[in-house]
Amino acid sequence: MNISLKQLRLFVAVVQAGNLAEAAERLFITKAAASMSLQELEKQLDCRLFDRVRNRLQLNTQGAQLLPLADELLQRLDTIEHLFQRSDRASGVLRIGASHTIGNYLLPRLLADFLQNHPDVDFKIEISNTRTLVGQLADFRLDMALLEGSSSDSNLCLQEWMPDSMQVVAAPNHPLAQAGRLSMADLEQQRWLLREPGSGSREQFQRLIGSHLQSWQAGLELNTTESILNAVAAGLGLCLLSGLAATAAVQDGRVVVLDLQPGIQRPLRLAWHKEKYLHPVLAEFIEFCHHWPPRGGQ
User: Fold this and answer.
1) Do 147 and 86 share a domain, yes or no?
2) Are 182 and 176 in contact, with CB atoms under 8 Å apart?
3) How does DSSP classify residue 238?
4) Residue pLDDT, tens place only, 47-77
5) Dihedral angle at the C-alpha atoms of 235, 239, 243, 245, nearest 10 degrees?
6) Are residues 21 and 88 located together in one domain of the fold?
7) Whether the Cβ atoms of residue 144 and residue 137 lie closer than 8 Å to each other
């Protein structure tokens, strides 16, 4: 058996792209060359790695066994290359995913703090909703992700990272805005503005608010935090948001925070595939996340 690194790179690229044409483009080779390389790899392993479903290549059981091993081998090769290129300090590329609130309000400072001591590390960032990021972790397109939502995927390692305060916000002229202390019962019959299915904020509303109300109305469904805040300010309904996301809109008077008691918190999480090789830079970044933010808070 004589499996080459080029074949493994192609295999991983096909998993991530779902078809040969796009994988070939990523590796700057022809589709014919990609097809021959994949066929040779499958011949050497004496098994098919993909099921051909319509015009896509879908990873099968044998391919799923190879994927974490191929990813680890390629990551270890990158580690060797960086080790001998710059032996004085950590370097490499980290593919990090983040849910929208984390990506917009926490990740920039987190990366800036990490890069102060690790200037040779490069980041490739994907900002999306929790469902999309979980899918990218599953096929090793991401090294790790910082999530607002949860996942039942047994292949993922999930670690609680830090708490996040959730707030119910309303337009300043909303009837509940001047009502003082509120309980969950006061939120009955209200219209709610929601993020798209798959987002951490949508999941948290269903779990923390929707499941405790006898009756509530779904208003607009929007896929950005700013659009939701603008809709709330226009009087179109209430929403549940991270305090991180609501701060600027509260400060400029566009929305107000309702005094809901008791307060609501959710955990933010770090996630990666259980079979993901935690190469030195990735392991160091995970450890850094657990000790961040520095004293003084967010």
Assistant:
1) yes
2) yes
3) B
4) 999 998 877 888 899 999 999 999 989 888 8
5) -70
6) no
7) yes
Nearest to 26 by CA among 38, 10, 5: 10
Q: 86, 168, 109, 100: which is closest to 132 by C-alpha?
A: 100
By CB neighbour count within 10 A (0-12 exposed, 13-18 middle, 19+ buried), where does 261 fall? Answer: exposed
């590390």: which residue's tokens?
Answer: 121
130 in Cβ contact with 199 (< 8 Å) = yes
Which residue shows structure tokens 């659009």? 227
* 93 and 53 co-located in one domain: no
Residues, the chain, total?
A: 298
CA-nearest of 41, 7, 35, 5 to 20 is 35
What pTM value is reported for the model?
Answer: 0.76
Give the CATH number for residue 78.
Answer: 3.40.190.10
**Separation between Cα atoms, residue 143 and residue 25, nearest integer Å:** 22
